[in-house]
Amino acid sequence: MSPKKVIIIGGGFGGLNAAKGLARANHEVVLIDKTNHHLFQPLLYQVASAVLSPSDIAAPIREVLSHQKNTTVFMGNVVKIDKKARKVHLQNGDVMDYDYLIVGVGARHSYFGRKEWEKHAPGIKTIPDALQIRETILTSFEKAERCDSISQAQKFLNFVIIGGGPTGVEVAGAIAEIAHKTMLQNFRRIDTTKTKVYLVEGSPSILPVYPQKLSNKAQQYLEGLGVQVLTGKMVSDITEEGVGIGDRFIESENVIWAAGNQASPLLKTLKVELDRQGRCKVEADLSVPGYPEVFVIGDASHCKGKTDQPVPSLAPAAVQMGRYVARIIKKETPLEKRRPFYYVDKGTMATIGKAKAIGMFGHIRFSGYPAWLAWCFVHIMYLIGFRNRFLVVLEWTFSYMSNHRGSRLIHSSIEKLLSKSNQEKPPK
Amino acid sequence: MSPKKVIIIGGGFGGLNAAKGLARANHEVVLIDKTNHHLFQPLLYQVASAVLSPSDIAAPIREVLSHQKNTTVFMGNVVKIDKKARKVHLQNGDVMDYDYLIVGVGARHSYFGRKEWEKHAPGIKTIPDALQIRETILTSFEKAERCDSISQAQKFLNFVIIGGGPTGVEVAGAIAEIAHKTMLQNFRRIDTTKTKVYLVEGSPSILPVYPQKLSNKAQQYLEGLGVQVLTGKMVSDITEEGVGIGDRFIESENVIWAAGNQASPLLKTLKVELDRQGRCKVEADLSVPGYPEVFVIGDASHCKGKTDQPVPSLAPAAVQMGRYVARIIKKETPLEKRRPFYYVDKGTMATIGKAKAIGMFGHIRFSGYPAWLAWCFVHIMYLIGFRNRFLVVLEWTFSYMSNHRGSRLIHSSIEKLLSKSNQEKPPK
Predict the structure, then answer these.
(1) Which of A238, A383, B166, B408 could pair with A60 in a Cys bridge, judged by C-beta atoms 3.0 to 4.6 Å apart?
(2) Under 8 Å CB-to-CB from A116, ≥6 apart: which residues?
(3) Using CB atoms and an 8 Å cut-off, which of residues 322-381 of chain A contact chain B?
(4) Low-confidence ranges of chain A (pLDDT < 50)
(5) pLDDT tens column, B42-63
(6) pLDDT, tens digit, for every residue of A2-34?
């Protein structure tokens, strides 16, 4: 069996675990990612809410793979996959051949056709996203402090999160905590308890994939933190002034998008059938129909599990897919001998503020403090690298004990922020 | 004694310590800073060299002052001081009155009249500066990895630091370490030991304020780390291709400016005599001539010490000035009763890579490992906040033991970096 060339596109949960699974394979492995780091996305909202720093939850990919002598890491952007010629094309003109290809390019946000909303309502998928949101949140409090009356300040103290899935719930809880606990003593002129946090969800309840009892519990926790949960409501418009929800308009500078995912547009160049979210419909072995050497994994992949439902777009699923595909490639298992991919559901959880969470594992439901501890534990274990685990535990301990947030930095100076927003105020 | 209104411009070492000194004063205190954080500038080069995160060395000012009920913090940019009317004008049009004014606005870099050099050779004064440099350094290694030959890669592996003072020396040592230790296993195609680091200084020796023996020692340490020290050399030009030094031209994408300071341009509006670096010439009590209620402290201040030399622009000096002025204002000591400011020299130190430093305290000179330990200790003690001290000790321990750097993140994706540099490469 001669060594083959394996290209992995994407250093997220899927791609990175595929690469690690090929550490001892007799192949040449090349991993290409648009950034230089593996990002622990489930905790990215904590960078946005100023609890963690970016480097607490990201690890340089080449550092993680530095001991794998058969693996080279490139920072590059793949713009086209030519499955017939077995080549990938990069943005800067480079072209690379492959014998095996693993596509783990993940997903971005979908704005349901209203692309113009994106600049007013950023999502949280990358570090720049999270830092942008953090800056907006912290700057809003600063701007509110400069206002002469609460009515002027209110639009800086309104936060609207669109999307009642786990990300939206977690962000809403985190912002409510910043306002009502962390910032309480820090401001003299504004009353940060006047902060209003809205969570908007189109379905009849938040966390629609969870059982009703757990969704209700989550809503209860959120309302306890001061979040106004608006279910069964669709967003009609988003402008720089705020958000239209049905007939109502909420003035806000802080609108965060946590609804709707769309798989990376690179997948279109695969010329394979895609589902409604743009994910590739793959075979039971995660390969592209007719091309057993090309695999699509993680959030980019639409793969039927043992039931009719596709495997969910979750980090543990991406990890399992990455390892599965690595095993096939390592042994070069021919198509007819490959066992189908089987997703082992290790449960899902969502946290709501400090010390509360909900979770389910098979038929087991849990909530409250035990769920939160489980949530913390699982996230720590999935983090890459001892250093990151240690730092995150530290930051969480600090944050839990003191109600302070460690990373409340606005990087930009006010000159830069003012030139961005061209704000004028009358002299007083 | 009725309460007075004290405005402090700048939340650096001077301004923040002045504010803390007024915690129990019977006055209303307002601190205005362009950013929302106090920055521990002496360690900023470690953010640039990917050892520390920004939030390890910065603390939100309003957090630090949150227990002082008499103190309000604003994020704002003061553009004019009207000392006759006793008012300060902000960029957004606000105007504030004061009874006492403390100006601690610090310094920026001076490019000796060649402002166009700044975009090719950034300095390290703010967090965005440091992150920009970090991104450039790490991206250079990534670009070098993509080159087909070492000759193509070399310009990405050349680093030029201009200015042989403590900052320049510390940065040069840090970059040499990244290249020759940290990155060693991480790259497959390039040999990071081919990295060339140049430190350029116009004077006959680096660290010109230190005694010759210590400067020589520092140079020896740097050369041991692989740094080429070019003394008695002036920079003739800086372009996007690299740096002209006398007749020589060094191709480089990584040019860092660590030479020459210039006090903030706000001081011109004080209409007071300035020195060559733009610092205000103040009286012995740090007040502006003729205006005993206006004080200028820190790097913005030119104050004669007990000798003819002005008090140096160092963090400990700024701290002492801040506390001194706070004592005067707290008691409202009239001009004729004020004792002159006296700077207590607690020594200076500079570190060169891991486990080496030089320092002097009065007539005592020291170098090597003991100097480095002293350097670490002093910096930890001056950091604001337990959390920051703890994290920095942790990061240093981690970095020291493993030769890894904790914060090797390039935030931007390659798409963004490519659109910035418009780079094209032929297909291979």
Answers:
(1) B408
(2) none
(3) none
(4) 423-428
(5) 888 888 888 888 888 888 898 8
(6) 899 999 999 999 999 999 999 999 999 999 999
Quick one: which of B210, B128, B131, B116 has its CA closest to B166?
Answer: B210
List the one residue out of B41, B49, B47 whose CA is nearest residue B353.
B49
Closest chain A residue to B75, measured at CA:
A142
Distance from CA of A428 to the nearest CA of B (A): 6
Query: Which chain B residues are closer than 8 Å to A392 by Cβ?
Result: none
Which pLDDT tens digit goes with each residue over B349-386?
888 877 788 888 878 888 888 888 888 888 888 777 77
Interface ipTM: 0.75
Q: Compute φ and ψ for B292, nearest 5 degrees.
A: -65, -5
Higher pLDDT, B416 or B84: B84
B424–chain A Cβ distance below 8 A for any pair: yes
Q: Looking at residue A246, what DSSP letter applies?
A: T
Would you call A393 an interface residue with chain B, using a CB distance cutoff of 8 Å?
no
B188 touches chain A (CB under 8 A): yes
Q: Does A67 touch chain B (CB under 8 A)?
A: yes
Query: How far apart are the C-alpha atoms of B132 and B121, rounded to whole Å?
Result: 11
| A144 in contact with B, Cβ within 8 Å | no
End-to-end alpha-carbon separation of chain B, Å? Answer: 79
Report CB contact under 8 Å: A414, B91.
Answer: yes
Contact (CB<8Å) B145/A74: yes
Rg (CA), chain A: 23
Per-position b or e across A180-217, b if 16+ CB within 10 A of its CB: bbbbebbbbebebeebbbbbbbbeebbbeebeeebbbb
Q: What beta strand segments (E) does A214-347 contain?
A: 227-231, 235-238, 242-245, 248-251, 254-257, 261-263, 280-281, 287-288, 291-296, 301-302
Residue B54 Cα distances to A121, A256, A407, B66, B157, angstroms: 26, 24, 8, 21, 25
CA distances for A38 relative to A34, A60, A127, B300, angstroms: 10, 6, 11, 43
Residue numbers in B near A189 (CB within 8 A): 72
User: Nearest 5 degrees, angle CA A14-CA A19-CA A25?
Assistant: 140
Amino acid at B1: M
Catalytic residue IDs of B: 170
- CB-based contact A186 B63, cutoff 8 Å: yes
Q: What is the CA radius of gyration of chain B?
A: 23
Q: Provide the phi-psi class of B357: left if phi over 0, else alpha when psi is between -120 and 50, else beta.
A: beta
